[in-house]
Design a protein that fits this description.
CATH topology of the largest domain in chain A: C8orf32 fold
Radius of gyration of chain A: 19 Å
Number of helices of chain A: 4
Oligomer: homotetramer
Structural class of chain A: alpha+beta
Largest interface: C-D, 33 and 32 residues
Number of strands of chain A: 16
CATH architecture of the largest domain in chain A: Roll
Order of helices and strands of chain A: EEEEEEEHHEHEHEEEEEEE
């Protein structure tokens, strides 16, 4: 499926600074970036980097002097996902996880799974399969956590949200991840462009490792599960923030949008409890 | 320099379980593991893994049934470190950090640098070079944080320790890392075997990225800086715990020791404020 | 009902110090302290005080020099409680609370009700009457929080316990209080001697203000509700700790016991969900 | 000294609600409220209450139905304070504190002194007298905590502020109180109207119990110490919030102002380190 995505970031910069920007659609075997353009002021040195795993890519911008800058990104992306029925998929035990999966069991900055063992076990521990546990976690978050802009900030973590029960997509994702890891289900953060998100913005949700697939879950239920263009997956938002700023930098604009650009009509996939369908972006 | 290191871990296991163990001396171009033996009960399936960066190596043990197990590790390691004077070493700006270094600027589970910006800036921000800042951080921790066994636990983080001001080597390391990152100095957790540590145990300290080197700092000042055999470096203890346990597992024994095994006499290197000497294990 | 209570506190004191001790059975119109003795070393100056509300009474001890002391308290108390059916008791709105009740709606050190509004409302908000809400809170705590000695410490608060889900009687009480206040139900901490508590110790539970009575609840369910001798009620443990120590003081002994001393057989009252019975110590 | 104070509070009320309002100038032997008027809509039932100590007074408003209300308060107050030199004032030990003073040593919701013992002791423990310690605390806060509107919220406590180092007058006061109590110096929260505060608003600072007086300290240094009209003193903001709202209430207006109304010119008193002058409002 083709999507046209675009982003705009603006900054007020008062001293020589460095920015690390995570807004590029990821290039994978199953997400083809057909064309993309990034426009930045010519006096800014930009550099495209890939992270240590060779997967996520991001831009580093060196701003030599005070200025006001605008960064624009546009891409046409051909995306691929699979829907798999997990009802009879065999669970993979920890003893069989690939080494690359194991870190997603560890607690991280915003997902303190180590502090949530008893709560996760008391609340979700008796539910049948891992798939059903993640489904129940997603349901619980959707039901109990209020989507509320401005309630949380960049320091808010799953440990806060599980009690305070309000936040934005990032907080929903962190809580989902933390609860999964507390149940020994690997989980990771997913950021991307989201079709039909209102108001348009960058979006965050999470993936749980189930039966050998990274299955997408979104406790906000704000978008269809198959309307996402992946920017990055990571331990949590600490490793995939839209922008990391080093210097005297004030963000002024953060915009993102996602339009459907395929000929065939878009058929949204939503959560359905009765069916064990899992959406995976390979 | 040669060291003979050994470890013993014991567990009471009440149901089929999986253990991930981080006790092997790391093999690097400058740390030669001359010989090593790991002894585990024969009915336990063991597997040696390397992490996603191909650096740290660890063991996964599959325990099929309830039992009491003991794991023993012995190794003879030839170690190499360099002492470099950092007085006139040029600082490297964020804009020049290799991509592999950048993640060590991000906050992590036990090192919430994002919550310590103002404190770090108010307390250490006006100190001259990055090297001197890290030295001052290490000094401050040594002076203000009391080494106190049993005060903290596996959930304790730098955010707690900066205020509560008591803990063990792990807590000292986490606080050092968090304060460095808050000042835009990459920092990482270092676990190893430590010569002359009393009582003998595994040890943790931290490395700061200064002038292109990962320089070792130890705010506990319990050991000479050149008496360490590296097990792992990582974001923080979440990624390098001695043992991660999945299942019904209770640790019963945790022992580690480190003996000097070289012919030439050991010449300890301690902290010296006046000299800008940094110890690096390459 | 008559109870014989006794307590022993021991301290290692290394410098001139002051202790404030809360172990006396409270004297009220309905709790008659028939006889009591407090024995302390003769060189220690003791003073009996009553708090600002003229209700709780406590001892202040001035220890002039280093020593090891033992404080013993014995009392025979005639106690009175009432069981009232709250099914048809009219609820009292905030607008009618006496001024002395209002502070028990405020958050306090260990009962951060302000941080639990959404959680309390999402979990208990739709339950019928205030009495049933408190009953459901007590049930939920009993079911989800594990009684575990040594897991928590004197800094642990309701905000911790609601997530960590383990603790001792003090933590159970604080969580109950915090959840009540978050639902606009006044609640206070209750410490006392508890009959049939195993192992014998001081006990803590809580009272909720319902229909004009302070009704006793105990989420630990370790004792019959009618086996308590009140020492103090307060905002939380911060105001009613067994001992506050000022100086270089290390507690060495903390013992308490409670024996039934009446002729008529003791008829224990336990929780019964179906009946709206509330036990109140006037 | 005479001050003319006024306040305006506005609320959007969507269901029958109760408000408890703390805006009246306190009436004491040394603060004479010469005249005051409170205007509220006639259909709202208002009731003036005094707290359990018979000191603070506050209003309870019963709003029977949805509405938009505005509450206005105006008063002419004749105020009295004393400046006392504390250089040679004998310190009072805990053993001599009146029972009414003791609760101000306990930790409270926003002043978790129990978590700050080591920090307070390490940072201020070696400073000479209690007066000088409180002065040093006030200095330290003024120097390290940035006055920043909107950074904190009603859940922010001293434990947060000591690390995050930003906040408003309320946060400055809570931190001062917590650090004092951690050093066994009783301290309490003070809210009032403040002359020359820019922009005009309610103000909060704190009092420390030194040599038998409650001495005023204000780490914000935004106002002269002798320009305050007391509304309330309390454990912390939990007990003296401007407004406690029970029901579906949204605050829309919060205004306060304070004008000098005396014939003699106002002579401001500011902090002076060299002199041990303490301002006390009796």
């Amino acid at each position: 499926m083709k999507f046209k995505v675009s982003a705009e970031l603006g900054y007020e910069i008062k001293a020589p600074s460095t920015l690390v920007i995570n807004i590029h659609a990821l290039r994978t075997a199953h997400q083809n970036v057909i064309e993309e353009t990034l426009s930045t002021p010519s006096y800014i040195k930009t550099e495209q980097l890939t992270d240590v795993n060779g997967e996520n890519r991001f831009m580093r911008l060196e701003v030599p002097e005070p200025c006001t800058i605008s960064i624009k990104y546009d891409a046409l992306v051909d995306n691929y996902y699979e829907v798999r029925n997990h009802k009879d998929v065999a669970e993979i035990p920890v003893a069989k996880f690939a080494p690359s999966v194991l870190p997603y069991l560890n607690p991280s900055r915003y997902c303190q799974s180590d502090k949530l063992y008893r709560l996760a076990s008391n609340t979700f521990g008796k539910i049948g399969s891992s798939f059903e546990q993640v489904f129940a976690i997603t349901d619980w978050i959707h039901k109990n956590v209020e989507y509320l802009s401005g309630f949380t900030n960049s320091e808010t973590s799953a440990y806060d949200t599980v009690t305070q029960q309000a936040g934005v997509c990032r907080d929903f994702a962190h809580l989902g991840i933390a609860l999964c890891r507390a149940l020994t289900i690997p989980a990771r953060y997913f950021t991307g462009y989201a079709y039909q998100l209102q108001p348009p913005d960058f979006h965050a949700c999470f993936e749980a490792y189930l039966g050998g697939d990274w299955v997408l879950f979104d406790a906000t239920r704000l978008i269809p599960l198959n309307g996402l263009v992946k920017i990055a997956t990571s331990r949590d938002a600490a490793d995939a923030s839209i922008a990391s700023m080093f210097g005297d930098v004030t963000p002024t604009i953060t915009k993102a949008s996602c339009q459907y650009a395929d000929e065939t009509p878009f058929k949204p996939i939503y959560y359905t409890r009765s069916i064990f369908d899992g959406v995976t972006y390979f």
